[in-house]
Every structure is written in C-alpha cells, then in structure tokens.
C-alpha cells in the first residue's frame, strides 16, 4: 500500500466511524509506508515472535506487525477506538486487543497466557508518556527482547547522547544502563495524520543481557543520577545535597572515586556515576 492509499484508507476509517482525534491522548496516526517498513525491519521479527504494541490508533502498524509475528497484543486507552479496532481486526486470528492504560496495567499479567516471553515491544506511543512508559518497560517484570518506538526526535537524541552535550541527562543514563539505543529513522510531520509540530524518530533499544555496570541498589543509583541533573548548572557537590547524605560521606566518596566535586553531572559517564555510587553506598553501609 503506497502513502496515498494509506492516507485515503485512514480518512475513510475516520469518516466511517466518525472518529474525533483526542489531543489530550497525543493521537497522531502514522501514514508513511517507508517509516512503517523501517519499524518492522528494525524489530527483526520472525513468525515465532510475540509483540506487545502500545497505542494502536486505527491499527496501521498493528496489521504490519501481525503479518510478520506469531502474536500481537495491542493495548488501547481510547474507548472510542475499540469498536473500530474490533471491526478492522475481525479477520485476524493472531491479534488481541486490550482496553486499558499501559502506564497503569501490569503488562506481565495482561500478556500472560497469550504472549510468549521474551516479547518484542513495538509502538507509535503518545509522546507525553515516553519517559514513564520506557521506565516501566525497563523496571517491570515482563521479559523483553527488544523495543522499537516512535518518539519525538529530540527525546531520541537524548537517549543516545554522550556525556558533555546538552542532550545528555538522566534519560540517557537510564536508557543506556538497560539497553543499547540507536536511532533508526527520522519521521517528519508529514508522516502523520494529523501532523505533529515536531519531527519524530524511530528508536531501537536492544535490551542488555547484563547492565554495563554492576549496581546492587538501582533505586539509590538513579536517585544520585536524577539529583545530579535537576539543576544542570550546579556542581555535583551542590546537586547531591538534597539527597540528605552527610557532606563528609559525599566528600570522601568523591575523593575515593577520583571525581572532582566541582564537576557537573552532564560530564560524568555511566561508569563514573557507578564509581561514585559504589563509594556512597559503601560509606552508608559502614
């Protein structure tokens, strides 16, 4: 199906079901065949794979996923889309639709009995839930093989950013701790209906079998990271004060980790944050 036919089909479905876009849900339907193809290629799906999709819209990506994978479970929040999806997917025996909020649902429980783990996650997600949803994927109990998402271009750039740049931050470290991120394609506004005001990107997150650094207390580790970036212009010694860690422990941790407390969080690599964490964690346990 070429782009023109895709646009016509999308408009016909919207007209047939009298669908109204909900801006608060960040609904932008993908209508570009090249981008759809790139998402499928990046997912490396086989007929043995199970796929979890978030936010199917009118099922454009869902149908492509179903033709390449064994099973697809798609979660949709908008109740007005449910009868549309149920009608469109009548002839598909490997698509299951679940009405619910992906941020609130227990994804392992929802998938249980249908999808085979590890699952591939593939979605054109509402941009306003990108960070909390990715965090949920990483920290949840569902075993994940790979994640391919459509996100805002600037958010994708933050995920792959290296230390020292303006895009580097807590999200970069979170993503790079749990996965190996790569930007697979850029999607301009014309690839969607309605057109968003920003460029988008297809990002692939290959889940790490083991994190690149050894961390026992991930909660403390990421609290240190988040605190280091809450006010980017502050030095590390000042940024970490809100954690409530005694100043003498912080000073000793900086010295033992070989990190200048006058540096800013944006200059530290994942390995340096791990070194600092280990010294803080050890001092707190002594």
Note down, in words, how this protein is organized.
It is a single chain. It is built from twelve helices and nine strands. The strands form two sheets. The protein has a seven-stranded mixed beta sheet with strand order 4-3-2-5-6-9-7, with helices on both faces. It is elongated and about 65 Å long. The protein has two domains: 205 residues, 3-Layer(aba) Sandwich (Rossmann fold); 68 residues, Orthogonal Bundle (Helicase, Ruva Protein, domain 3). It is of the alpha/beta class. Helix 6 runs parallel beside helix 8. Strand 5, helix 6 and strand 6 form a beta-alpha-beta unit.
- How far is it from the N-terminal to the C-terminal residue, by CA? 64 Å
Number of helices, counting only DSSP H or I runs of 4 residues or more: 12
Please provide the count of β strands. Answer: 9
Assigned CATH class of the largest domain = Alpha Beta
CATH 4th-level superfamily of the largest domain: Vaccinia Virus protein VP39
Q: Report the radius of gyration as a whole number of Å.
A: 21 Å
Alpha-beta content class: alpha/beta
Q: Which parts are unreliable, with pLDDT below 50 for 5 consecutive residues or more?
A: none
Proportion of residues in β-strands: 15-25%
Helix content: 40-55%
CATH architecture of the largest domain: 3-Layer(aba) Sandwich
* Average of pLDDT: 93
If you consult CATH, what is the topology of the largest domain? Rossmann fold
Adjacency order of strands in the biggest sheet: 4-3-2-5-6-9-7
What is the number of domains?
Answer: 2
Describe the biggest sheet? 7 strands, mixed
Principal-axes shape call: elongated
Q: What is the N-to-C succession of helices and strands?
A: HEHEHEHEHEHEHHEEEHHHH
